[in-house]
TrEMBL record:
Protein task: Catalyzes the conversion of N-formimidoyl-L-glutamate to L-glutamate and formamide.
NCBIfam families in the record: hutG
Residues engaged in binding Mn(2+) 2: D160, H162, D253, D255
Keywords: Histidine metabolism, Hydrolase, Manganese, Metal-binding
A GO biological-process term: putrescine biosynthetic process from arginine, via agmatine
Family annotation (SUPFAM superfamilies): Arginase/deacetylase (SSF52768)
Protein name: Formimidoylglutamase
Record: residues binding Mn(2+) 1: H135, D160, H162, D164, D253, D255
Enzyme Commission code(s) on record: 3.5.3.8
Amino acid sequence: MISNIFYELPQKSWWQGRIDGDERGLIRLHQQVQIIEINALKPTPGVRNVIFLGFASDEGVRRNQGRPGAATGPYLLRKACSNLPVHYSEKLHLLDTGNIATINGRLEEARKYLAQAVSLIIENEGFPILLGGGHAIVQGHYAGLKAKLPGKKIGIINFDAHFDLRAPAEHGPNSGTSFYEIAEQCKKDSEPFNYLAIGIQRSANSKKLFEWAGQTGTRFIAVEQINSEQITEAQQQIDDFAAGVDALYLSFDLDVFVSAIAPGVSAPSATGIFYDGNFRRLLKACFDSGKVISMDIAELNPVYDLDNRTAKLGAQIIFDSLLALDETYSATDSMSGPNS
């Protein structure tokens, strides 16, 4: 049961936009999203529920000496998604369950409630799309998945310029420590640490972090490898990684993109990847595995955004992911047959 000061109830006012009509071919996401209190979730026979949940927090960014402002990210991501046209099938239902927020800097508590919320979504057969907020979202997100999938190998594919493998400092965990914490927990539980980082920049990670990545068994695809000549090899790395796990959790730190198209992030970079055919091929490779069970968008900082281009970029990831998810579900349903 999620009911405390860390939980913000969903509001229909978060989803507003253009209305061209009520026909299926004219509607937009804001006309499709249903508002529901998270404790009221339940499985819906015959459909696939996609559940939006915000993490309205930038406390981890503050602790990591980044630019604060990401706490309002979930609201702007919803706004950017609202006018997107509906191209997925009627078997996909979208629900918004509100936000988990950090109160008075209490990040550790907020992450625990985030984990509980994610567990509720998985328990009720939903597909979580978490909206950040800082990248401290990862630890709580993963913990919630792990709690409901005991014994399963969960692989994390993180599109990010950074490894986020920093050890927590004196002020506690932050936006750059989640994968270190997960690696340590896996070590404690004698489980493999299944982590693939995509878009890593040498100039954004210290030599020590590269060494730690090697020690933890972290796999990575550097930003230089994401090009037309090497994209097939990068896709193969995703295929190989997915083959070794039971489920995939995708995380998208928007600072993986070049700042020209993603200025509104907590840690901008002059270099990075573009939202082009190469990125789409990598995204497709993830969903083609048939193992993606959850995803999040992190580090949108509306304070520094220009013309909402970063928010729209995050919305585009969600749009393309919904199409890929719908295709995956359709393929699964056709394989199972009407009598399964």
